Amino acid sequence: MSSNFSCEMTSFTNITYEDPCRIHSSCKIMGQFNIGAYSYLGENCLVGGAIIGRYCSIAPGVKIGLGEHEPNHISMHPIFFGSKHSFNIPDRIGTQRDLTLKKHQIPKIGHDVWIGANVVICRGVEIGNGAVIAAGSIVRENVGSYSIVGGVPAKFIKLRFSKDIISELMELNWWDYELENFVGIDTSNVEGFIEIFKQKKKSKAKYNVYIRNSEKEILK
Question: Is the peptide bond before 60 cis (omega within 30 degrees of 0)?
């Protein structure tokens, strides 16, 4: 187990993670949560559920995949869509939601994504590799790979690189390789990095994968 993985969990929490990753002890995870190697969550993040790739940088106060309410029902309170929500209420109140709908699916976040402080990522959202989400944004729609978005709701601002470079980075899948492969390469020169990395003899990364809930943790 990673000594730097600690967070608050509920009885519904089910975590799968690659070691190493970093989850601040003040974070709370409440559902299905997968996270890749070298990704980290800052202080006071709240996660209802998410699938997160490798090398993601998630700032403090981010909220991901919290439950959606039902504005088209008679009431938006959870007891009217099949959840007692810890209240002592009679059985057979409310109508169950169709949780297979996209709006209820946990968000999927790619590799090397930077999410700024206090961002809200709604259910059903997919964020591509290399994307940037500006601080304070509310993300309700999918975000393309290597896009920069921001605002309430989040809107496209620009691409990080040209479409040709983005295409090459997506083919390179550099996040799949051991860190030793990066030694001595200038990572500030994107075009130069791509050329060197394509020609380099590389080794794929292998990480220990752990499964964890509120009661125990096992090596997968």
Answer: no
Q: Which residue has the tokens 């964020």?
A: 127
- Which of 122, 148, 125, 151 has its CA nearest to residue 137? 151
Angstrom CA distances, 71 to 32, 100, 111, stand at: 25, 18, 33
> Reduced to 3 states, what is the DSSP secondary structure of residue 128?
coil
Dist CA 108 CA 16 (whole Å): 14
What is the rounded distance in angstroms from the CA atom of residue 130 to the CA atom of residue 114? 7
pLDDT, residue 1, reads 45
Q: Which residues are catalytic?
A: 73
- CB-based contact 119:133 (threshold 8 Å): yes
Q: pLDDT tens across 127-178, in order?
A: 999 999 999 999 999 999 999 999 999 999 999 999 999 999 999 999 999 9
- Look up the pTM and report it: 0.93
Q: Indicate the burial class of 155 (C-beta count within 10 angstroms; 0-12, 13-18, 19 or more).
A: exposed
Q: Report helix angle 190-199 to 163-172, nearest 10.
A: 30
Mean pLDDT of 54-63: 98
| Cis status, amide bond into 153, omega within 30 of 0 | yes
The fraction of the chain above a pLDDT of 70, given in percent, is 98
